[in-house]
Design goal:
285 residues; alpha/beta; Rossmann fold; 8 helices; 13% strand; binds nicotinamide-adenine-dinucleotide; oxidoreductase; SDR_fam
Amino acid sequence: MSQTPGTLEQFDLTGRSGLVTGAASGIGLAYAEVLAEAGAKVTLTDVDAVGAEREAKRLRDAGHEARAAGVDVRNLDQVARAFDGHVAAYGGCDVAFANAGLDVGDGFWTPEGDRNPNGQIDVYSKEKWDTSIAINLTGVFHTVREAARVMKANEKKGYRRGGSIVITSSNAAEVNEAIVGVPYMAAKAGVKHFMRHSAYELAAYGIRVNAIAPGPFVTNIGDGWVKKNPAAKKAWDELVPVGRMAETYQIKPLALLLASDAGSYMTGSHVMIDGGMQLGPIKPL
Ligand code: NAD
């Protein structure tokens, strides 16, 4: 008879490994850190290869097993090579965070609350649209595609069966957050439904797929404007029902839940962590 695992034991990732895209900064870096804290070996990938190596070294210096790879998620070959490199280094892959993303800007409203002349649909930049979809949606497809490939192969190679894929979506997948660019919202809504189908298809292989949908977190997104501009930060804090933007450490427990056996019965979920933004901003955007 198999023994029921203890609750905290289910969060333990000792002997496992995970790959994170967009891991040099912000939410992706928090994912890499929590994987390492829970005992996993980690590959940090980012288009900023120097930043990924800087953070991997920081984790190694703290006693964890971590490596880095320069990866632009727009490039399928680079994503595939990163997963192959991870498997070659660590024997298999248990967890993948499809996280890399950015807002190309030009929301309908400026952060100051004025109508943005470049943010209206009839003039919206096609180049910005294409960039946003390529990174935020196609980049997630590339990452999930390659994660599924190596996770399906796990078992045949004598490694553990299955795995967990976690995609970073956004509250903007659900609500019309008209301060971010319209392609960002469209891409994240696409990510949500792509996640749902991936979860459905991959369940038979023991691979779970879920998405984390953050509200406003203090990161370097948008060139870190929220870190550089205290007035903009205050304006954002005042929009959130709980009264403040989030710090990246606050995403770690949810990330670990989904990555580990603690989330073994969760798949196809789009989990909001947004300080109540889904309920509507406290002031109109
Ligand atoms: P961030 O800018 O701090 O980190 C994003 C990382 O992704 C950077 O290191 C960047 O170099 C990397 N990146 C950008 N383009 C890339 C590419 N083409 N290939 C590989 N890496 C690339 O921003 P963040 O806020 O931590 O963003 C992480 C994810 O969280 C994104 O998907 C973003 O849409 C999502 N998100 C953020 C917020 C927020 O408020 N910060 C809210 C909702 C969703």
